Amino acid sequence: MSGPRPGNQIQLLHSGGEYFPALLAAIAGAREEILLETYIFKPDAVGREVAAALSAAVLRGVRVRLIVDGFGGRDFVQELMDDLAADGVEVMIFRRELKPLLARRYRLRRLHRKLAVVDARIAFVGGINIIDDFEPVGPRHPRFDFAVRIEGPVVTDVHRAMARLWRLVLWASLKRRFVPLRWALPEGVRSGSMRARLVLRDNLRHRRDIEEAYLDAIEHAQTRILLANAYFFPGRVFRQALMAAAGRGVQVTLLLQGRVEYWLLHHACRALYPPLLTAGVRIVEYRKSFLHAKVAVVDTGWATVGSSNIDPFSLLLAREANVVILDETFATGLAAALQAACTDGGVEVSLADWQRQRWWHRATAWLAYGILRLLLGVAGYASRLK
Questions:
Q1: Which of 157, 172, 187 represents a domain boundary (last residue)?
Q2: DSSP H stretches of helix in 29-118
Q3: Which residues form the active site (predicted)?
């Protein structure tokens, strides 16, 4: 993994209420090029507003390249793709879903990154899809999530990663394989004082980079680890690292999903609670709305924001992108947001709470855990959870 780059200006964006205005403003100011990657691109009010902004950019001469995952973007393919392509947006689908009943391992390897670069000058990295914050319908409060807006040398790395994936998908799709592509040229100039680096996960050169970045920070933690993650089902090495940190006096807090969005993952995650709680790890379930964040703060100067969950699908299968930020002011701001969520919307779970549950609640958790392990075993990944 490359070291951190100095000279960045990074702004924390809390949920869609801050992210989409910033993204739309950058798109509106684009002069040469817009690159966008997303797992979900919903044809709701937010999705249509972003789509309209992309089309408007093309009409004023901006080159727009958009990649949407074939599974997460199924609604996009049906309702938005053709109109965008007709307007001149260059659209590609990552592993398009053509045979829904076909069970193959490669179909689990999804594009889960949420990235954007405008004019090779401004980048966005995070966990926020192109979707209304209030989907799925139900909560009165917006989905809890984060992204960052970046100016500075790290933008060059984000642009390079997006251009590389575009060429790979273009090659795989048999489209324009040998036609030269024009790209905006990143300047890489310093825009601030923050040190940061882009950390990727793919199935080639960066299989464990995000997991190793987390483990390195956890193993060197001295005072606190504050980790918020929507889908938390780590392997044994990750769990032991958290428990070892708690054992040496580090305050370890996990802010996890309290609402049931995906039944299997939700209950399988809860089967991991007893050993973590016994080791002194604090667990808080966020129940105010749906938690979608994938962020962490370690000590006073290490933070990460990105798309990677701490589960087998993100750590073993999907393409993911996180930014690690080494800046005390940024880490303090993110920690404050997470601590506020623990207080307003979080419910702490104690070992006594777990043990007082009806037996069938605990049995449901272990059943889900067993089913998920079985499914990963069928796919050939169970051993990686050890």
A1: 172
A2: 45-59, 74-79, 81-87
A3: 112, 114, 119, 292, 294, 299
22 and 113: one domain? yes
- Catalytic (active-site) positions: 112, 114, 119, 292, 294, 299
Q: In angstroms, rounded to a whole number, what is the distance separating the alpha carbons of residues 380 and 134?
A: 36
Looking only at the bridges linking them, the beta strands covering 63-69 and 346-349 are unpaired
CATH of the domain at 294: 3.30.870.10
Domain identity same for 281 and 167: no
**Number of other CB atoms surrounding residue 287 within 10 Å:** 14
Residue 186 lies inside a defined structural domain of this protein: no
Alpha-carbon distance 78 to 80, whole Å? 6
